[in-house]
Amino acid sequence: MGWAAEELASINLGDARRDRRAIHLIERLAEHPTASIPAACNGWAETQAAYRFLGCEAYDWLDIFEPHRQCTQARMAAHPMLLCLQDTTELDFNGQTTKGLGPLSYEAQRGMYLHPTYAVTPEREPLGVLDAWMWAREPKAADGHRPGAPESLRWTEGYERIADMAGALPDTRLVLCGGSRGRHS
Fold this sequence. Notes:
This protein is of the alpha+beta class. About 35% of the residues lie in helices and about 20% in strands. It folds into two domains: about 5-55, Serum Albumin, Chain A, Domain 1 (Orthogonal Bundle), CATH 1.10.246; about 80-175, no CATH class. The chain is built from six helices and six strands. Strands 1, 2, 3, 4, 5 and 6 form a six-stranded mixed beta sheet that branches.
């Protein structure tokens, strides 16, 4: 059994073939982390299967992420103290014709934001991703303000989820590390 099959043993995307495709695709992408999907896949048939998998609306990224989150939490229980590191990064898809993108740091840039929380030991051993939020910003209104909740809310929401998780890990001290550059949307 490969590492992805072990990590995603509890995956359930509603069809055993989808579950196997998720594991296979994750292994391929991990083997070639900087490659495009066609370059990471072994031939056109595998590339088409990857795009079909990614385009399926019967599940979303959270369904694929959940088994990893569960394994991460299980690994955390073996440690007396852990750092829960929050960060926000831009996923820049400028020039792509992907739906659902929004402005990034500059209104002309197109992409999404990702706000993960990583579990790391004080000795710097990564245990996995505990939590993640992805969103696309709304364009600024005519008055220069961006509609919706402030993006700084992601930091607070991350804290609340870690605080909830602490009850399931009574022998592990969770230290949340994060910050904001003070910029508001």
